[in-house]
Amino acid sequence: MSNLLLYIGSAIIILWGIGHVIPTKSIVSGFGAISQDNKRIITMEWIAEGLTLCFIGVLVLIVALFDGYQNQTAVIVYRMAAGMLMIMAGLSLMTGAKTSIVPMKICPIVKTTVAILFILGSLV
Description:
It is a single chain. This protein is mainly α. The chain has one domain. The chain is built from 5 helices and no strands. Helix 1 (2-21) runs antiparallel to helix 3 and helix 1 packs antiparallel against helix 5. The chain is elongated and about 50 Å long. The model has no long low-confidence stretch (mean pLDDT 92).
């Protein structure tokens, strides 16, 4: 059961990360007429968040596949990944979730849900 929670959480956050990276060009275009430097910064940050989410998901997935949930180091990885997701959820809640963009409003919920799955996966 623990591994299943970890696999589900990993899949969700990897897909959410991919969902950040794919629409980057249209997201940046949505900011309208801004300087080239600002476009580059937004592009960098948008892709960085997507890659970070994918990395967290892949890290937990690989550790779960190879070490399961009984290894103390694996438990630390799952809980630290959950902690990072909670920090990212807090950041999203204070920034993007205050916009009118629905995916940005959902982002803290997705991150928090996956963090809970990772914590539960490390306990069961």
